[in-house]
Amino acid sequence: MKSRNRIKSLMLILAVALAMAIPGPASAVQPPFSATIIITGDTTIYLGDTTTLTANWSTNAQDVTRYEWQVDGATQGVVSITGASAGSSTFDFTPTAVGDYEITFRIWHHVQTQRDASESVIVEVTEGVITADVDIKPDTLNIGSQGGENSVTCYIELHQGYDVADIDVSSIWLNSQVQAQSSPTAIGDYDGDGVPDLMVKFDRQAVEDILVVGDEVEITVTGALTDGTLFAGSDLITVIDP
């Protein structure tokens, strides 16, 4: 009898040992997080322009719940989404100063750690050339006539957001060859359209020396504002030599 009890005890111990040795169902293990982010858009723009950047992203997990755009590390607003493994986002960037800006797109899980990815691009902002409305007088320039030294007049209008009072008169050139006279100058509304214009004058003989005879001769006037912003505008006149 004792022998049987001893055998039962040994069998029980063996069964317990085997149960402990057999592993249970394996617990789910998340793979390492990986993501691909591609940012597209114009990364070289002029001051005052807007560039639209697009971020297309995908991951190996269905657990992205947040994303954001950043400009030089400053968030532009966090967006919450239902857990996703891929998506797309756009960002309109309008710089306020010349320089290089680091634009970053970031995705992450709001709770889990090590579920985070980001990608950055550099947007280069340079001085642009704004368009000016230019009106050259006279409309017909007679090379053979005897005009005064300041008898070629130019009226310059700038588009909304810019002030003709900020134009540096010494920076104004006609066809990059004739500089505007320092005086007389005046701010008014020559064409009566409600938009202020700057009147400057050019030496007539200097202008005649660089123009060719023609029915539609293009004259381009360029210059700069006191903050360095460049402008350019063109007009067509008739040049005759009877």
Question: How would you concisely characterize the structure shown here?
Answer:
This protein is about 10% helix and about 50% strand. It has about 240 residues and is mainly beta.
Describe the 3D structure.
The chain is mainly beta. The protein has 2 domains: 35-126, Immunoglobulin-like (Sandwich); 129-240, Immunoglobulin-like (Sandwich). The protein contains 2 helices and 17 strands. The protein has helices spanning 2-21, 204-210; strands spanning 35-40, 44-46, 51-59, 64-71, 74-84, 86-93, 99-108, 116-126, 129-137, 140-142, 152-158, 173-174, 178-179, 186-188, 197-202, 214-224, 230-240. The strands form 3 sheets. Strands 9, 10, 11, 12, 13, 14, 15, 16 and 17 form a 9-stranded mixed beta sheet that branches. Strand 4 and strand 5 (74-84) form a beta hairpin. The protein is rod-shaped and about 140 Å long. The protein starts with a helix and ends with a strand. The relative contact order is 0.14. The mean pLDDT is 88.
Keywords, separated by commas or semicolons:
single chain, 242 residues, mainly beta, Immunoglobulin-like, 2 domains, 9-stranded mixed beta sheet, 5-stranded mixed beta sheet, 17 strands, rod-shaped
